[in-house]
Amino acid sequence: MYELIDSPWLPLRPKGSITAEEYPLRRALLDAHEFDSLVVDLPTHIPSLLRQVLLPVVMDALGRPRDEAEWARRFHAGRFSDAERDNLGSYLDEHQPRFDLFHPQAPFAQAGGLRTDKNETKGSALLVATAASGNNVPLFASRTEGDPLPLTPAQAARWLLHTHCWDTAAIKSGAAGDPKAKAGKTMGNPTGPLGALGAVIPVGRTLYETLLLNLPFGVQPVDDRPQWRNDPFGPEWRTYAPTGLLDLWTWQSRRIRLIPEETEDGIRVSRVVLCAGDRLQAVPEWEPHTAWTFQPAAKSAPGTLRRPQRHFPGKAAWRGLEALLASERQDGDGRFETSVLLRQLAGLQAQELLDYDYPLMVQTIGITYGTQSAVVEDIQFDAIPLPVAALRADDELYTVLLEVAQQAEDLASAVNNLSADLRRAAGADPIPWDKGQRPGQYVLHALDPLVRRLLAGVQAADDPDLLERGRVAWEKAAHGRMWDVAEKVLATATHGEFVGRAVDKNGREVIYRLATAEQNFRRRLKAILTRYAEPADDLAVQDITPVAEPLPH
Length: 553
Prior knowledge:
single chain; alpha+beta; globular; disordered C terminus
């Protein structure tokens, strides 16, 4: 027996501490105001622990905030009231048997007695996204699939919930008693629900604030319930639309059974049974933890399709500000829409129910899957300060942040164009956009700390003059960082680039050379950084040849 309500398994950092410890679910919730945040081994654990346990317990026990006023009252209390703590405690006591990780008939988030027709089991590495298994084990890895990976009950519980949210797709073992299994296999399994989107998680100063920031207000369906209030799961599964948030958050996308064993170090889980589980018909439109993108529909069906916004490997969260700040589609033709939760915060700030300078953090979390979504290829994580006022399209801060993000992209493009012109002058082709390392990536890397510093600085900047000074300071700093990269690109020029080459472009002869490449680059730079006046002594290289040919654009 290892019940999760009073046994330590949730990794939390107490306020004022630099280290994290494992705490029981009861302590984590009743004293949520005493903890800074979840501290996990892998960022993808954050949404899985919030959605599979913490948020549904709070919502089911205390109810969903009905409107902005109720949400604000609970949020500004800073902690659960004595009455709310009593209700949480009573709720946990009532459902304690269903939180037993190794219960013989109804283990938590598992199917009791689950087995395959041949009673096969697999290594616990199957649950661990960062552990190679099956054909993914590298040839010269330090461990093979046959080596056990013993998990403590706490670790097993966290990876169990992670699997329900993020598991890979493709073929799964067929469960005995599953009428849809064929030849001991189940085909066509999708990824876990979070694998289909880029998670956007608002984070507060304490765990309590984070819980409230992730609770949408509104009316909860009467028949919506978390998985532990359903009948124990068997091997059967179905495809259906979730009833409400509680059903969605505790979605059982796999049928799993952990197999505990006694060892010298205590109970460990080294073997598991993992089979197909319930499938979502589609990501519901009210999914709160993702931004949305609008794409043209097929020619046969005019209109647009609303799809979850995905995160891209290596792309900082601030480069997606257009999606995070799009609290509403402008005139119905915008390309993005922010998450339900961030849109909710925009409304709260507009009604002055949330302070202008509230230090909101936003985490973006996602997984990139490999071939047929059967392997984990990359994990994306970023955290940025996000000024609450910027979520409102009518606030000047909204315009400022979008302009800064676009300027950074334009500066990277300008350096890429400089590189392309120099390569043409040398008789080479520009670096393809999808291959190699283009110099614009170095520009974005150099600008990254400046943008983050600006985001943090403007969270409390409600003075227009201060905001304008910040924009000027940003352009000056961005100009210097950009030239650090541009000068290295120019330093690669040889005699060939100085003389230049004639290139036929659309029936016209265009001459590419060092002088015109830099002149064109400076022209683009001046158009991008409109508030920064470049000093005369910054003009290091002069155009010493007359420009008689058309300049490339």
